[in-house]
Write a structure and sequence with these properties.
The chain is built from 14 helices and 5 strands. It is α/β, with parallel strands linked by helices. The protein has a 5-stranded parallel β-sheet with strand order 2-1-3-4-5. Strand 4, helix 11 and strand 5 form a beta-alpha-beta unit. Helix 4 crosses helix 13.
Length: 332
């Protein structure tokens, strides 16, 4: 009889111990969730907060043009060249695999301190899910993430500690080049034309139109104009994607420029102007594209030239410190 009582007491202690452990675990999850949860719908919180920190280092009301999008954006547009050639300022807010939910959050951060007249979205990001909710997530996963947001934002501590290159040489150089990633590697694209005649359209990512409407309305409310742009990328782009983007732009009343049709006019040489077989442009390719696109921006949006304005003297300093010659036909 005594042995039975002891056994029951031991079982009771184990149950109470397990319950206590689960309560402590739940409290830790809830507490860390409170610290790490974002109040915005953001997919890549670490990249978002690094970009937010970088933007805060720019002078207030000093940016004329902002670029959003994924790696295509930060591989193609060179803000310091646009400053050198035309005297307007710009900043690349593109992040790897950026979704439109992140674009929307970033543009709100931009307008908290800046007043860009033009916001450019590189359109490769239109073909992935727009929200932070993963398409493959189950209802159970969504419920857990709702109760314990740390399951979704568990990498956010990296942004607080600024790790994974946040203060490394590569990131520092990117920040000093206003968000552009300087890369000179060469891997040729050898497969020939990629834009073929077809009336077919690619399927847009989930909630893309919804988020693009939000971005357009927000930018318009701040006095800016939204422009959709596709940069040459044989491995990422197609006529089907062009058609889908053109139809979307028409529905929303947005301008759309597809430079995949202009690669020859731009002067892209796929033997030397791509770093990874036609996926991204390298510096040589970005130099040519920027020289082409900056003229479109100036003529279409009447952008100001600040070269002789002392408020923008830090841009001349950044140009000098980059140790890159941005003059035409004098790359290096």
């Amino acid at each position: 009889m005594q042995d039975i009582r002891k056994g029951k007491n031991m079982t009771k202690k184990k149950i109470l111990g397990s319950i206590g452990f689960l309560l402590i675990l739940a409290a830790l999850l809830l507490g860390s969730s409170f610290l790490l949860k974002s109040d915005k719908d953001i997919d890549n919180v670490v990249a978002f907060e690094r970009k937010q920190n970088d933007l805060n280092k720019e002078k207030e009301n000093s940016i004329d043009v902002v670029f959003l999008g994924d790696s295509e954006s930060y591989s193609a547009f060179i803000p310091l060249k646009m400053w050198n050639d035309e005297g307007f300022t710009s900043y690349i807010c593109g992040t790897s695999l950026q979704r439109l939910c992140d674009s929307y959050a970033l543009i709100q951060e931009v307008y908290s301190r800046q007043k860009p007249g033009v916001v450019v979205i590189e359109t490769n990001c239109l073909f992935r899910t727009a929200s932070s909710q993963k398409e493959e997530s189950s209802n159970v996963d969504r419920l857990y993430a709702k109760i314990f947001p740390i399951l979704k934002y568990h990498t956010r501590w990296k942004a607080y500690l600024d790790v994974e290159g946040g203060t490394g040489k590569d990131h520092d150089k990117e920040r000093k080049m206003k968000g552009f990633k300087y890369r000179t590697g060469i891997e040729p694209y050898m497969k020939g034309p990629w834009m073929h005649n077809t009336s077919e359209s690619e399927k847009l990512g989930n909630q893309v139109e919804e988020y693009l409407c939000k971005i357009k309305d927000y930018v318009t409310s701040k006095g800016g104009e939204l422009l959709l742009v596709s940069v040459p990328s044989p491995t990422n782009w197609s006529t089907q994607k062009h058609n889908a983007t053109s139809e979307l732009a028409d529905r929303l009343g947005l301008d759309f420029i597809d430079m995949n049709h202009d690669a020859d006019e731009i002067g892209i040489d796929w033997n030397i102007d791509t770093k990874d077989g036609g996926n991204h442009l390298n510096f040589e390719g970005a130099f040519k594209l920027t020289e082409y696109f900056e003229k479109i921006l100036v003529s279409k949006y009447n952008l100001p030239n600040h070269k002789n304005d002392s408020y923008y003297s830090d841009w001349n300093e950044a140009l000098k410190n980059s140790k890159i010659n941005y003059d035409k036909n004098k790359k290096g």
